[in-house]
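Lab notebook, bench 4. Still working through the backlog of constructs that have no structural model yet. Next entry is a single chain of 147 residues. Request: give me the structure tokens for it.
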Amino acid sequence: MNIFDNSPRSIDNKGKLTVFFEDPFWVGVFESVSDGELSVCKVTFGAEPKDYEVQDFIIRHFYGLKFSPTVKVELKQTADNPKRRQRNAGKQMQNAGIGTKSQQALQMQREEMKTERRQISKEMREAEKQKQFDLKQQKKKEKHRGH
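Model written out:
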């Protein structure tokens, strides 16, 4: 990469937060699109969050969020017409829930966490078995000490 290269580079980073009611809690879904790849994180708020509470949460906890593995997504180019943007914003406010790509990314994250949990619990079981085995061996040795 030449640092003096003046050719235009387009780094496409977009973020979106959707807050909706998923019985019995309010849930926020952070969607991050970077270079045509979607990554998602789901956060449970509990009670209905106020705008300033959501903003405070983003400021304090955004960099600590655990996003899902990336999923390829095709971005649609829309015109920069302000009326069109307003209509799209209205449509997004009407839509409840999260997009299918986001759901796929969340499912991938769940699967990843599930395999991680399984591996950790398996290691803990093995360690417990080894500990019990060592304890039995020690008791056997203690029984035969005096002979």
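Notes after review: The beta strands are 13-22, 25-34, 37-46, 71-72. Residues 20 and 96 are 7 Å apart (CA to CA). Flag for follow-up if needed.
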